[in-house]
Design brief:
Blueprint: H1 4-17, H2 20-25, E1 32-37, H3 44-55, E2 59-62, H4 69-79, E3 84-88, E4 95-96, E5 99-100, H5 108-116, E6 124-130, E7 158-161, H6 167-178, H7 182-191, H8 197-211
Parallel strand pairs: 1-6, 1-7, 2-3, 3-6
Antiparallel strand pairs: 4-5
């Protein structure tokens, strides 16, 4: 149920993942950075989970608001088995620009140096999610003129906006949940226009619960 551009990014990342030797032969760091932005419930974290499953590698979620610099480095160095998807969720709740929002014990420089420092994490696929792309510092990587290209390749290589559901995917989700009641299917297709994945799913679940005996 992900948007078309998200599926395309999954496929592009799979192609990148299969070319480790090509990157090594050209002395290009084999690592990737993706920035996903959009409202809550639009599938950003789900994208990271699907990506890890498609690549057949582990997914590590880092709760940056709970870690100090030393703890963060220890987790990265000792507990991450590469290649892996490394997920930093809700980055705007941790840093606004380069300033810490809640956690004064974790510095901005520590995080971005892990993403593209001297000791590059070979096989690391960093996924950063945010509801507020305007709060992301250019040193991480921001969209170039509204495109999927990043201002800081090597940290963030691709940027993807995750918004409301596209109609074909939304209709599939509705039909999967409400397929037993044709009247509810048609009603939901009309009422859920402009909804995210989570909003559409919840609407359908609520309608189904009224019909289930």
């Amino acid at each position: 149920y992900l948007p078309t551009k998200a599926v395309e990014l999954l496929e592009e990342t799979q192609k990148w993942f299969a070319q480790r030797e090509w990157f090594a032969e050209r002395s290009i760091p084999w690592r990737r950075g993706l920035l996903l932005h959009g409202p809550g419930g639009s599938g950003k974290s789900t994208f990271a989970s699907i990506l890890a499953r498609r690549l057949g590698i582990p997914l590590y979620r880092f709760h940056l608001n709970t870690l100090s610099d030393a703890e963060f480095m220890r987790e990265i160095n000792n507990n991450v088995s590469l290649p892996a998807v490394i997920l930093f969720e809700d980055f705007d709740r941790v840093f606004k620009g380069r300033e810490s929002v809640k956690n004064e014990h974790l510095s901005f420089d520590t995080v971005i140096n892990v993403m593209s420092g001297v000791q590059t994490l070979t096989g690391g696929v960093f996924v950063i999610t945010t509801n507020k792309p305007e709060d992301i510092d250019k040193a991480v990587g921001v969209s170039v003129e509204g495109s999927s290209m990043s201002s800081r390749p090597g940290r963030i290589d691709r940027i993807l906006e995750m918004g409301v559901m596209e109609d074909p995917q939304r209709h599939l989700l509705i039909e999967r949940i409400l397929g037993d009641w044709s009247d509810l299917v048609e009603e939901a297709k009309f009422l859920t226009q402009g909804y995210t994945i989570v909003q559409t799913q919840e609407h359908c679940v609520q309608q189904a619960l009224h019909r289930i005996h």
